[in-house]
Amino acid sequence: MAWTDVLLLLATGFFAGFINTIAGGGSLVAMPLLIFMGLPSVEANASNRVAIFVQNMFSVQGFRSKGVSMFPFAFHLAIPAIIGAIIGANLAVDISGKLFNRLLAIIMLVVIVLTVFKPYLTKHRLVENLSRKSRIASIITFFFIGIYGGFIQAGVGFLIIATLTGIHGLGMAKTNSVKVFVILCYTAVALTIFILGDHVRWEYGLILAAGNSAGAWISSRWSVGKDDKWIRIILIITVLALAIKLWFFG
Asked: Which string of DSSP letters, residue by residue, matches 60-104?
């Protein structure tokens, strides 16, 4: 691997880790890059999980260092997500590369819409709701989020934010702390499935992980109480360009 590829992976990983922690969508940049660097779609998907796993280890610790934690609530949501991820990861192993690329391009465009309009965020003051009924609704929802996350990962952060703010009325700091913990848990299972199938390209995944971890640690500590406006603008431009390239040239 050329040193320019290493630098590109590190820079992309840093950006992906940073935006993954404060909102989501980092994999929409990382996975197309891996595909454009010559990895088959399933290997790009699998190798990206190495970075996602390591990144979220740093993110969880970063939120804890700032005193932001939602245990055991986060653990209760992680269990159905793990079960769903087992299903999703096995589906990802069997899908054709061309179909995967087309699905990824479509998802990227959908995420742009979510990023622009942010329909998952309420405009009025959030009121926390951790009632038994709301917890059951989230447990069911997180099972399906786990399937999606295990399958493709890209944009899953937006689904988690929508669930936690919409059902439970959590603020963004608590929402993101739950998000990174749940993703860490189900990614461990999904990554194991990809490893057993020998789909992980470790040299790509570990370099990307180094960048992701740095971005996640900085973002998890910086993002508490901050506005993500400019990050979203950069994400929109980047993802739109990559989606067009992936659809027509991927």
From this structure: HHHHHHTT---TTHHHHHHHHHHHHHHHHHHHHHHS-HHHHHHHH
The CA distance from 53 to 2, in Å, is: 25
* Half-sphere exposure (Cβ direction) of 237: Cα atoms closer than 13 Å: 5
> From CA 160, how far away is CA 120, in angstroms rounded?
9
Report the distance separating Cα 81 and Cα 75, nearest Å. 10
228-236 contact pairs (CB < 8 A, 24+): 228/19, 228/22, 228/23, 231/18, 231/19, 231/22, 231/23, 232/23, 232/115, 232/116, 234/15, 235/19, 235/23, 235/25, 235/28, 235/29, 235/115, 236/112, 236/115, 236/116
pTM of the model: 0.80
Please state, rounded to an integer, the average pLDDT across all residues of the chain: 82
Exposed, middle or buried, 198 (CB in 10 Å: 0-12/13-18/19+)?
Answer: exposed
The 10s digit of each residue's pLDDT in 198-241 is 999 999 999 999 998 888 778 766 655 555 565 666 666 666 76
**How far is the C-alpha of 168 from the C-alpha of 232, rounded, in Å?**
24
Is 28 exposed, middle or buried, given 0-12, 13-18 or 19+ CB atoms closer than 10 A?
buried
Residue by residue, DSSP assigns 141-209 as HHHHHHHHHHHT-TTHHHHHHHHHHHHH---HHHHHHHHHHHHHHHHHHHHHHHHHTT---HHHHHHHH
Please report how many Cα atoms fall inside a 13 Å half-sphere around the Cα of residue 162, on the Cβ side.
16
Delimit the domains of the chain by residue range: 3-249
